[in-house]
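re: ur question from earlier - yeah i can do the single chain one, its not a big deal. heres the input i used so u can compare w yours
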Amino acid sequence: MYIVSACLAGIKCRYDGKDNENNDIIKLVKEGKAIPVCPEVLGGLPIPRVPCEIIEDKSGKLKVINKEGKDCTLEFLQGAQKALAIAEVVGADTAILKSKSPSCGCGKIYDGKFNGNLVDGDGITTRLFKENGIKVYTENNFTLD
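and the output i got, formated as tokens:
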């Protein structure tokens, strides 16, 4: 069983109210092999919402800040915990998540300056999944068993 980003499954849950439909992911969901989740929505954020990026504060702690300067870290952490709980219930050991996302990004995320620049790093949910032994891929680098 896979956990997949809901936006990849065609669910309009992105920050801008759109999706990132991926036919391979949709097929997995329709075949009952994947469960779609949106950690940001699970954490209580609305659709649409102000875009968010991860920053490092002066003490070295990671925070998720929206483009208007509001701290959304708590919602991201809560959403990640709920996504992990779903993964555990369904026995998922692999996730296919949306690249570059502050929740789901894997390997590269935006730099926190809202200028489109990417840096090495993982989103909040990806970090938690990896810490709990879930393999994480993006829509750009997964292969199906």
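The mean pLDDT is 96. not sure if urs matches, ping me
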